Amino acid sequence: MISKEFILKKIVQLLLHAIFWIAVLFCYTYFFGYHTENINYVFSFSLFLMPVTIGTTYTIINILIPKYLLEEKYLLFILYCIYTIIISAFFVVISFFYGLIFLTGTKIGDMAPMTRSPLFLFIAVYFVVFIASAFSLVKHNYKSNSDNQKLKNKILEAQLKLKEQELKYLKMQIHPHFLFNTLNTMYGFALKKSEETPEMILKLSNLLDYLLYHVDKPFVSLQDEINHIKDYIALEEMRFNDVLDITLNIQNIDHAVQIAPMLLIPFVENSFKHGRIRNQRLSIILELEHYDGQVKFKIKNSIFDSQEYNETGIGLANIKKRLLFLYKDKHTLHITKDEHWYEVHLNIDTTKGKIYE
């Protein structure tokens, strides 16, 4: 069923075309009426010339331009333009003889000065055709740019939704990975019936609160992420007891600074998961500072042999993808290792605007 908006649009288009051709008719009358007072003759002659002008114009703007010029079929466009000009020129000549024979009775002296030469008639007709064709090309160009912009916006929206879906998928992978590590630690405490189990449950509840109510936010405060890391480390300290040797150095934390949630914890998890006890100690050094809009995060853990260190864990792979999505060209990540240490250096620029650029 044809909508009212479509009918209204067509009516407006017809009115605009009608106004344009009425204006052309009056311009013809004014142009051909130069140095003559015979208005009836000039108007009749202009009216007879209108179908030639209208037919030529619509042939070019409705057929030749869209089907050949815009489709880059230039040779066919030129060829059919020549055909159109020849046919229209024939009818322009007929218009000349119409004015000479039917309006003046073959008395060329009674013709309006501007209609005595077919050259002026050609100029008048093809000038209108040129103007209309130019407007048509501008309209097609504007419509093409508008359609391209809409298509570009749709592609960007689709890419954004795809990134959002992939980020959700990555988070869904991180959550079970994180919970598995934490619950596995708690299971060990429960088996030993440790008195520290209630405190461990409290720490875990804090982590779950962060996990459930903050991780879906695009940004959280850096301080919240630090508190999350501290709770996780406290759980691990309970598990490792005197075996763990951990150093925390956190400086210049601005409470207004925000980062993506669960961004740093996978590195901390990996340090505990893949770190190795050397000289009866699992050594971990964590440094975090913020200045001039830069978040600088460094963590290193002891290992036995760099050849044995596994970098294929889910957490590390996901965090690399998240960094590319969220902080493309706004972060640097360097991972180094030797025979004794595995180090991660992560710098994030929090001053460069928005996510998903």
From TrEMBL:
<keyword id="KW-0418">Kinase</keyword>
<protein>
    <submittedName>
        <fullName>Histidine kinase</fullName>
    </submittedName>
</protein>
<dbReference type="InterPro" id="IPR010559">
    <property type="entry name" value="Sig_transdc_His_kin_internal"/>
</dbReference>
<keyword id="KW-0808">Transferase</keyword>
<feature type="transmembrane region" description="Helical">
    <location>
        <begin position="119"/>
        <end position="138"/>
    </location>
</feature>
<dbReference type="Pfam" id="PF06580">
    <property type="entry name" value="His_kinase"/>
</dbReference>
<feature type="transmembrane region" description="Helical">
    <location>
        <begin position="12"/>
        <end position="33"/>
    </location>
</feature>
<keyword id="KW-0175">Coiled coil</keyword>
<feature type="domain" description="Signal transduction histidine kinase internal region">
    <location>
        <begin position="166"/>
        <end position="242"/>
    </location>
</feature>
<keyword id="KW-0812">Transmembrane</keyword>
<feature type="transmembrane region" description="Helical">
    <location>
        <begin position="77"/>
        <end position="99"/>
    </location>
</feature>
<dbReference type="GO" id="GO:0000155">
    <property type="term" value="F:phosphorelay sensor kinase activity"/>
</dbReference>
<feature type="transmembrane region" description="Helical">
    <location>
        <begin position="39"/>
        <end position="65"/>
    </location>
</feature>
<feature type="coiled-coil region">
    <location>
        <begin position="146"/>
        <end position="173"/>
    </location>
</feature>
<dbReference type="InterPro" id="IPR036890">
    <property type="entry name" value="HATPase_C_sf"/>
</dbReference>
<keyword id="KW-1133">Transmembrane helix</keyword>
<dbReference type="InterPro" id="IPR050640">
    <property type="entry name" value="Bact_2-comp_sensor_kinase"/>
</dbReference>
<keyword id="KW-0472">Membrane</keyword>
<dbReference type="GO" id="GO:0016020">
    <property type="term" value="C:membrane"/>
</dbReference>
